[in-house]
Records
---
Amino acid sequence: MYTYSGFDKAFLAQRNTQFRSQVERRISGALTEDEFKPLRLMNGLYLQLHAYMLRVAIPYGTLNSAKMNKLADIADKWDKGYGHFTTRQNIQFNWPKLGDVPDMLDALAEVGMHAIQTSGNTIRNVTADHFAGAAADEIADPRPVAELLRQWSTDHPEFQFMPRKFKIAITGSPNDRAVTRAHDIGLRMLERDGTRGFEVIVGGGLGRTPMIGKVIHDFLPEADLLPYLEAIVSVWNQIGRRDNKYKARIKITVHEHGIDEIRSFVNARFEQTRATFSGVDQNMLREIETQFAPPSFKTASDAPFNEAYHNDPMFRSWADTNLTAHQAPRYKIVSISLKKHGETPGDASAAQMRVLAELARDYGHDELRISHEQNVILPHVHMSDLPALHARLRSANLATANIGLISDIIACPGMDYCALATARSIPIAQQIANRFDDLKREQDIGQLKIKISGCINACGHHHVGHIGILGLDRAGVESYQITLGGDHTETAAVGERAGPGFSADEIIPAIERIIEAYLELRSARDETFLETYQRTGLAPFKAALYPQAKAVAAE
Amino acid sequence: MPKQFTPKVVTANHLLEGDVIYQTATGWTRRLSEAELLTDEADADLRLIDALQQTDAVVGAYLADVKVVNNALEPTHFREEFRTTGPSNYAHGKQVDLH
């Protein structure tokens, strides 16, 4: 894991001192809200429906036990004893008081964390595959490059006042778990003739105008990465639409100009930016890489795992659902679900955070990850330790065996917290999870991604959910619109809108009708929901969703 | 024809706490029940201007629709209703702080 240098520490200390002074001046009345708002947003502080909210960056979703324990301490001391992990691998504290925020930021700085550029029209926290450095299918760990991007983009003087926010995601695996095609820039690591490079995708995004990103460079040599990205952001910074907030993201720029024209602009700018990079960035990357060396994996028998797997049905069910293949022999990647049925997706109490930190230290080489799917990952656990780990997860209410299943729902905070929301998301997620848990059909239904957003901005990634739910305000009533067939992986697709929306009372039965239709339509038990949908198309699901329409049509 | 004016209150968030507050005839309250009911459009505009000038105490003041039911003020929109209570997933916010 990257450890802050003296430069990083001094920079952060200076920023925190500046912000403390800005807060003091706001409280004294020397700064108006209009003057203060851009300053607080640069430091991740929002004002939500019921309180302030502090969004803390978790760079590329990577934490260790010290950082996780600090988040727990902050939750206890200055918040209400919990935190909310987000689809951008960040954590949000929902109840800070304005006067306490400088102390919270100082506490974060003690463990090399901050809230800089988690808001505002800047390059935001760089997100990455949550299995990075561990996945069996990985070409290389993308996190050193992500860290280089973090250092390059933090306080970059050219990119502090851009047309709009800018999000970069990176994966080192051919199986895309970082949703790279729905980011302003997506980077997919490739290897050609023994050389590492990137497929560079640009202009993806969700929100009110969902777009799947387009390939601007099919194999960018690694050494050219920073000057090339600087060229992309620089071109957009100049020609991006500043006249209309809703047309300001790079996806619209790419859409309006076409990818070929954007590529030629970028290539021209790249000629200039490349000349300004002396290669020092590559030296820095080599240095950063040494800080992401794999842990020293242990060798031990997997007998304890096999014994538990054969004798303990609870353990077997959890192991079948929550473990992923690891690159080291007899190691597994453990996904810890923050989606216990009826709980808020992505929330962890301070007590749970401390347990997670302890487990990472005891069994996981002191590494943790936050996934964009709002779960916590222990990337390196030896199979012999899994039974003991599972037992401790169970006693902390963290052993829910539902990764990738219907109750493993992404949900944004929605109108329970967010000032932008048009409807609530959390209660819908809770009800869906409880309903299918009651029916005991989760395992039978199999792999299914439900993603819920409480407004058109799509923080809940509803467009790329197999089933997407969008909460809207329809004439003063919460209404939920369904999209079907979205895909967040390397074969990314935006879901199709199924038809008119449903009220809060109608949405759970509507989801049930979709699932019933799938179970009837699937050609075999192992044909997933998405595969069935891709084979049959929308029509049979639409008929199941709107039985009255079918009846009327038949009359 | 101009739209008929509907009853309103001035609401905002508290600068330090960040929580929801309502304007009274003399200051601010955390309870909608104690808010000043504004039934005249010109009066409402003046009260909002007054609130917007109090930048050292409140943030984001605006006029919110209310209705009077059994002599009590009630929000007309679900967003305002949630602002009077708090989130639905935990017993946090006004639903516990005011009891």
---
Amino acid sequence: MADKSRCIMLFDSVHDVMRTEKLLKDRGMWCDLVPTPRQLSSECGMSVEVHCRDAKSAREFVSADSSLTGVYRIDGEQAEVILS
Amino acid sequence: MPDNQRSAIYLDNAATSWPKPDCVASAVRNHVLNYSANPGRAAHRMAANASRVVFDTREALGRLLGVSDSRNIILNANATMGLNLVIHGLLKPGDHVVTTSMEHNSVMRPLRWQTEHGGVSVTMVKSDRLGRTTPEQVKAAVTDRTKLVIVNNASNVIGTIAPIAGIKSAIGEIPLLVDAAQTAGVLSINVEEDAIDMLACTGHKGLLGPQGTGCIYISPSVSERIKPLMQGGTGSNSESDEIPSGMPDRFESGTLNGTGIAGLGAAVSYILDRGVDAIREHELALADRLLAGLGGIPGLTEYGPEDPRERTGTFSVNIEGLTPSEIGFELDRKYNIAVRIGLHCAPEAHRSIGTFPQGTVRIGLSALTSMDEVDAVVIALGEIAGRKTSG
């Protein structure tokens, strides 16, 4: 059975969302800008979704001083931090 | 647009540059027609595109100004807004500020407000008749209460360039706020190399963008000390009623001028493609021709430094026996040449160069001014001066 979980990079600032999208796309990594899942935040903004298999390398590309809150795995109603 | 405007020789670029590169109009049109959604507030694809153009513009400005992390560039409406943010957001009662007599009212008026209502004291270093201020003069005015030094990167009246890197070296750790309204896009600027703490730009002059756009670079060493003058929606941390502390959101409450920013981004890309150094060379060639032409007109005085390399493409003149308004009116109505007359929002600068209160006729060149346009204004001023001499 296919894994239905999604991996989401959550940031405090839209600037870092845009910067991360560019960074990942420049490196040829798939990503998408998506509404922040309600399991993570009441935030009205957007987040970066990546393939879960890429989550670790995506986290490494993002600079240490970014406003990344964490990388989360969303599975149904469950959300867990997999990288921070 | 009326036809007589289309054929105008426009030399009022120190106020607002015109024409703009074609790509600016295309970018504004494309934004309005295709993706003028709210940047940073939603994740639908149109809003994402609107957010991307804001990000791209910020990045382009970072490349132009020598800012490695473009988060530290705040997008706003003009240089005045950035200057006010720092002056009203950083200063506290008892603080002292050093500035120069070449400042625009966008600095002079908020400082006056602070001296009258904010308990701040100001020392204004007087520039010489050519608009020059030295790092030594600025340093000599610094006291142990000095919390800010503000310097106009180049005079909006006579174009004189201030030695901002030298001034920063002279004042050490005291934050330096540079007003780059007249220099961004026309002079090479690198805030990180020159250790400039804050640099305010406007989009509608040398950056060749639309009116109502601008930015200010604020270095991380001072950003937390500056109060955000406005608080509101940022698209981030919406669950909290506290303004986010991170850059750029801390200073960007409310929906940005997305359409203008799209135009500004296109303008900055044009400048980066053409190269600031190439634009500077173009303006220097125009300046050489203009200064040679003006020098041959009897009764005409030109006020700035003789060497065009010490100034931007902004020139102030007077003709003996005529007021600036008479000259400006004749240039407009008889020759279809647009210039600016008067005090150019900088009365102290005119006191320094000896042209207060009558002011001057100001000729402002741009990256898109042609040699023919320079020749036309020289011929026109020669005829106007000639009629005065013979009449």
